Amino acid sequence: MKRIVFGESVQGASHKRVDKECQDSFKKIEFDDGTVIMAIADGHGSKSCPYSKSGSSIAVNVFCKVMDEFHTSYAENLEMLLTYLNREGDTKVAQAVDAEWKRRVLKAHTNHKREVPFTEDGEKNKVEIYKQYGSTLVGLMITPIFIFAFQLGDGDISFVDNNGFDHPLEDEKILGVETHSLSKIDSWKKVVSAVRRRDESEGLPYMLMLSTDGFANSYKNADEFQKTCVDYFGMIRQYGAEAVAVNLKDWLSETSAMGCGDDITVLIAYYSDDSKLENEADANG
């Protein structure tokens, strides 16, 4: 079995026009046992969130760190990890991510000597500091026996195979432009998570994709977005993941320009059957 994980973040077309940096971040970790941890985050980018790029960067690093620690603890018993995440994913895991993100935000704010707001009682106003770094967070842990999906705020987790498109996790959609945020007190309570048992060699080839809301929002409806995800899967099958990876940045920039103008991040894990690729190469040789 062959696995390739790749992604890109692009500055939105509307952000380019006003010279506003991309607020998205992504990170991936791959382990020798085949486990992959991957995360994307979308900083809010509003006037009240001047450091949301830092917030999104902290978010993906925190998710990968927290999940890395769980993987290390349960590396010899993934079945036990599956049970734990199924039971505690939207509580203990979410609390760990929430607490570590807030700890790092306060540390970053202090290290950069940024202005510290105070409450009427003269205490450091942590709530106002968190708000300045506001970000969403979407993540996956893909192991040889299960997939763990984690989401706080908008964005999409997509699964595509030869049978079509599926959502491993249905997020709680919010009407309007507001989204759940790591910056909120007890943000962990808004986390949704799911565990899906799946052998990594089952139903090859398949693709798992994380994308910030700028991707889906660039299409006129959910059907068009899902069709595009299926098209990406088809292009990887036809031309290879490496070819798609090389072109991804340009394609996402074009999508933003033709669509909503927002920043876009896409992170893909593609799994295929090595033996089939070799057989096809022999047949074509």
Verbal overview:
The chain has 8 helices and 10 strands. With 285 residues, the chain is α+β, with helices and mostly antiparallel strands. It has one domain: Phosphatase 2c, domain 1 (4-Layer Sandwich), CATH 3.60.40.10. Strands 1-10-9-6-7 form a 5-stranded antiparallel sheet. Strands 2-3-4-5-8 form a 5-stranded antiparallel sheet, covered by helices on one side. A hairpin with a 5-residue loop joins strand 2 and strand 3. Helix 2 runs antiparallel to helix 3. 42% of the residues are buried. The C terminus is likely disordered.
Uncertain runs: 277-285
Q: What is the overall shape?
A: globular
Q: How many H/I helical runs?
A: 8
Specify Rg, calculated over alpha carbons: 19 Å
Can you tell me the number of structural domains? 1
CATH class: Alpha Beta
- Structural class, judged by helices and strands? alpha+beta
Strand ordering within the main sheet? 1-10-9-6-7
- Residue-averaged pLDDT: 93
Give the helix proportion (percent range). Answer: 40-55%
CATH architecture heading: 4-Layer Sandwich
Number of strands: 10
Bin the strand percentage. Answer: 15-25%
Instruction: Report the biggest beta sheet as strand number plus sense, adding barrel if it closes.
Output: 5 strands, antiparallel
Distance between the termini: 21 Å
